[in-house]
Specification:
5 strands; alpha+beta; two-stranded antiparallel sheet; GMP Synthetase, Chain A, domain 3; 3 helices; 100 residues; single chain; three-stranded mixed sheet
């Protein structure tokens, strides 16, 4: 059965092309639940803005990456809390050249 860490690692292959950073380090993944039988995964994710033009493409990429591991993949797009640059991981900030 895939672990949460393995799934997050897989999701690091999904990049926001406008920012040039993967969705995990960008802080777009809010929740990730794997079913007890390991056949399903449900993800709450957000976008950098409600009007994000690549939102549908990002969701499709998430589904594509995970369909090889799970029979059922559900992606919920949420905007609470709203995304902000503070949600970027330390690794992501370094990759983007942002420093505190």
């Amino acid at each position: 059965m895939p672990t949460k860490e393995e799934v997050l690692n897989d999701l690091k292959s999904v990049y926001d092309p406008e920012i040039g950073l993967d969705i995990v380090n960008l802080g777009l993944i809010y929740r990730l639940d794997i079913s007890d039988d390991g056949k399903s995964v449900e993800i709450d994710m957000t976008l950098t803005s409600i009007a994000c033009p690549i939102g549908p493409s990002l969701i499709q990429m998430v589904e594509e990456v995970l369909k090889n591991k799970f029979e059922n993949v559900k992606v919920n797009v949420v905007f609470d809390p709203p995304w902000s640059p503070e949600m970027i991981s330390e690794e992501g900030k370094q990759a983007l050249g942002l420093f505190d």
